[in-house]
């Protein structure tokens, strides 16, 4: 698996990678412990500040780590990591070090303490922005405080979960920009 | 454009169509007025009750209609409706009847008053479940109270927005169910 060479990327544009709806890997750290979880329930909520909402259930070991640290990294994997994505979702970080177990490389972020995953072409450092609905629904609202993207990856083959073990793989690109009003682009 | 023959579908399984992250069309009705908006910022939040969160900004004419009626229908279009999806997003319902303008067929739902779009293969009738974050972020949480799907559509070519007028078209299916623990399927 390649380790990507990521550069700084504008946080206002993280929609480019998250709005299509890929399964992501959420990495976290708290008091020397790290974890990774596979997550499909997320959405862009605001351009600036760049807000991302997601569900992380208390049943996930990561819940405690992201809640106590108030930080995470949202990493976007592609099809080369398909098996690891499933295996990470099928295991729990209370028993194993997922970076070691799944052969992933932890890179240090610029702002948060949660590690970035080297084998993902995009990583977004996040700080907890709203906690109102954590207790009720496990709903976290994050501000992306720093974005890192390998911009040589132009049409990432991301995976999109349908449930029951079935994924949709990102297909062709379709440019309809000529049909848009210029002011909304 | 075909008009789909939709059947009842379990609300607990609407993730199958929404979790992959397609652009959807939100239809609404209030006091005799109807509207449709194109929407990409949404997520599954709970299986049962089937909750879906989404952002509908006050800048959208639909905001007032869905807020006052407490209802909407989330319709999932495919690539055949690409031009209409863009044009709907580029126009405002204060000036036109979008069903008439874009040649779409309004079907009556079973529970809510908002119309379903006949040319979409899946339509989810929704009632407002949580309004806590509407004022701050335009964030609505809906309960899907009735789902309608044409189940002959097995690998829908949905569109997934990247911003700047560019879409990703849903590609191949990848079945990794054999790799999952049976109890999480």
Folded structure, characterized:
The structure is a homodimer of 185-residue chains. Chain A has 185 residues and is α+β, with helices and mostly antiparallel strands. The first copy, chain A, has helices spanning 15-18, 61-69, 82-89, 98-101, 134-137, and strands at residues 7-9, 24-30, 33-39, 42-46, 51-55, 71-76, 106-107, 116-117, 122-130, 139-149, 159-163, 166-175. In chain A, the strands form three sheets. In chain A, strands 1, 2, 3, 4, 5, 6, 9 and 10 form an eight-stranded antiparallel β-sheet that branches. A two-stranded antiparallel ribbon of chain A has the order 7-8. Chain A has a two-stranded antiparallel ribbon with strand order 11-12. In chain A, a hairpin with a 4-residue loop joins strand 4 and strand 5 (51-55). The first copy, chain A, is globular. The model of chain A has no long low-confidence stretch (mean pLDDT 96). Chains A and B meet through helix 1, strand 4, strand 5, helix 3 and strand 11 of A and helix 1, strand 4, strand 5, helix 3 and strand 11 of B. Strand 12 (166-175) of chain A pairs antiparallel with strand 12 of chain B.
Q: What is the secondary structure topology, with strand pairs?
A:
Two copies of one chain form a homodimer.
Chain A: E1 7-9, H1 15-18, E2 24-30, E3 33-39, E4 42-46, E5 51-55, H2 61-69, E6 71-76, H3 82-89, H4 98-101, E7 106-107, E8 116-117, E9 122-130, H5 134-137, E10 139-149, E11 159-163, E12 166-175
